[in-house]
Amino acid sequence: MVSRMFRIETGDDKERRDLLRRRLLETNTAASPVLRALRGTPGEREVPLHVWALAEDGTLAGGLAGHTWTTWLHVTYLWVDGLHRGTGLGSRLLAEAEQAATARGCAAARVETWDFQAPDFYRRQGYEVVSVIPDYPPGITEYTLTKRWDRQLGASPPPA
Q1: What is the DSSP string of 10-28?
Q2: What is the DSSP secondary structure assignment for residue 159, as one 8-state letter?
Q3: 123-150 pLDDT, tens digit each
Q4: What's the count of helices (H) and strands (E) in the chain, helices before strands?
Q5: pLDDT tens-digit readout, 85-114
């Protein structure tokens, strides 16, 4: 075995980070026929998907920010103002995002949430827990949930 010396550094470096991302993308594309087939197609890009709910006075009552990638919707943020919780607004926002994602060719969705946030809400919307990370951060449990509407009754999510 050949012993090599390396200089290890820490710190923020946007140029190196971007190079690292490109190199990893190249390596992954070379190793995966699925990712290789995505190269150069519309499915290769993450496309933002945002849904907003505005109160009568124009203030933000709730919203969902995420993106679609390949055939998946990724819900990054879903929030409803305390004044409007329990009204079904969160369900409406999520259903609207699922409909928009379906129109883009998506058949599934994923979301991460903490134990004190909304795992039960997502379960009621048909999502299943696929990952549990206890103590992330310490004292909190993180859940990853997914929903595949191609496995639900019918081929698309319920209308908004």
Answers
A1: -S--HHHHHHHHHHHHHHH
A2: P
A3: 999 999 999 999 999 999 999 999 999 7
A4: 4, 6
A5: 999 999 999 999 999 999 999 999 999 999
Range of weakest confidence among 34-38, 56-60, 112-116: 34-38
DSSP 89-122: HHHHHHHHHHHHHHHTT--EEEEEEETTTSHHHH
Q: What 3-state class would DSSP assign to 43?
A: helix
| Tokens read off for 121 | 């809400």
- What distance lies between CA 157 and its chain's CA centroid? 17
Residues 6+ apart with CB under 8 A from 95: 125, 157, 158, 159, 160
Q: Indicate left, alpha or beta for 9 from its phi (over 0: left) and psi (-120 to 50: alpha).
A: beta
Give the distance, in angstroms, between the CA of residue 90 and the centroid of all CA atoms in the same chain. Answer: 16
